[in-house]
Amino acid sequence: MCTSGLRSARTLATTSHSGETAKRVSATSRAVKDSRSTRMSLVLAKSVEVTPRAREAGGMTSRLGFGALHLTDCGWGPPRDRDAAVALLRLAVDLGVDLIDTADSYGLGANEELIADALHPYAGVTVATKAGQSRPGPGEWVPLGRPEYLRQQAELSLRRLRVERIDLFYLHRVDPAVPLADQVGALARLREEGKIDRIGLSEVDVPTLEAAREIVEISAVQNKYSSDDRTWQPVLDHCAATGIDFVPWRPIPRADAAVAKVAAELGVAPAPVALAWLLARSPVVRPIPGTTSPAHLRENLGAEHLDLTAGQLDLITRGTT
Ligand SMILES: NC(=O)c1ccc[n+]([C@@H]2O[C@H](COP(=O)([O-])OP(=O)(O)OC[C@H]3O[C@@H](n4cnc5c(N)ncnc54)[C@H](OP(=O)(O)O)[C@@H]3O)[C@@H](O)[C@H]2O)c1
């Protein structure tokens, strides 16, 4: 099993609602919000549909990003089906996704190359990448935060993504063997030189985030978070209070009885319900679900049109069935 620039969420929240006409959302889906009839909800929720549109029409973006990790064979090898992976990335963008998440270490660079092949010159799509995890073998992820290594990896990402500046560059892990100031300082220098635009951190607690913010502006935090794993809730709260994007990875719970109950009530799959709950947590939340399946991609993006009732949100928040 795999373990492992962002437009601000506030800006995005505005734009994601401004282009509603570009997205065909069944009028009946909106009725889900108001209906208290389970039978009615069942019928209506199934009709939530997201259809492609031309990006050049502009204005329509999704709060959901796309996590590309699994496109390159569990983060180690090249894509199993390159054409299908390219088509999926393009479909995501056609459906309104404007944030693609990758890392230097996914597929040992193959993931970034795939994204460049599919989407370069990106046309308004933010590609977020990361450095700071070495890959001595499949399934192994070892933090490596020496400044010269972070700089080398940024240079390689620039080359593979075929850009002069990386939109959003995360420190993938804080390396406990290297002073935080050296790691974040390396990213700050890359930013000063114009090689990266915004800076993010991954898997950090609040004190580490605040220590980093003493050195340089931090635009995003990418921590593991979902309805069934809220370990990082204090970090989400802190991001919400300070206006930093909170980007949950592994946003789809593996088994959440409350999510399953609400999904059954609405007659939809559990994944979009879990994602809709995440979106409702705070406007700074930008989940990056990953999939290799066009059907799952469409299903996940449907989360933006699932207006869960206060009762449904509360049920999932309390985690009781
Ligand atoms: N910062 C970090 O340390 C870190 C760590 C891990 C991941 N990430 C990033 O976060 C992204 C997401 O994390 P993740 O891939 O671990 O977790 P995830 O997106 O929550 O889960 C991906 C898994 O869920 C399945 N899935 C997706 N949509 C589904 C649906 N509608 N119904 C049923 N199953 C569905 C996928 O299978 P199918 O392919 O069959 O749909 C895949 O096995 C990654 O792509 C990566 O960019 C970051």
From TrEMBL:
<feature type="region of interest" description="Disordered">
    <location>
        <begin position="1"/>
        <end position="31"/>
    </location>
</feature>
<dbReference type="GO" id="GO:0005737">
    <property type="term" value="C:cytoplasm"/>
</dbReference>
<dbReference type="Pfam" id="PF00248">
    <property type="entry name" value="Aldo_ket_red"/>
</dbReference>
<keyword id="KW-0560">Oxidoreductase</keyword>
<dbReference type="InterPro" id="IPR020471">
    <property type="entry name" value="AKR"/>
</dbReference>
<dbReference type="InterPro" id="IPR036812">
    <property type="entry name" value="NAD(P)_OxRdtase_dom_sf"/>
</dbReference>
<protein>
    <submittedName>
        <fullName>Oxidoreductase</fullName>
    </submittedName>
</protein>
<dbReference type="InterPro" id="IPR050791">
    <property type="entry name" value="Aldo-Keto_reductase"/>
</dbReference>
<feature type="domain" description="NADP-dependent oxidoreductase">
    <location>
        <begin position="63"/>
        <end position="316"/>
    </location>
</feature>
<dbReference type="GO" id="GO:0016491">
    <property type="term" value="F:oxidoreductase activity"/>
</dbReference>
<feature type="compositionally biased region" description="Polar residues">
    <location>
        <begin position="1"/>
        <end position="19"/>
    </location>
</feature>
<dbReference type="InterPro" id="IPR023210">
    <property type="entry name" value="NADP_OxRdtase_dom"/>
</dbReference>
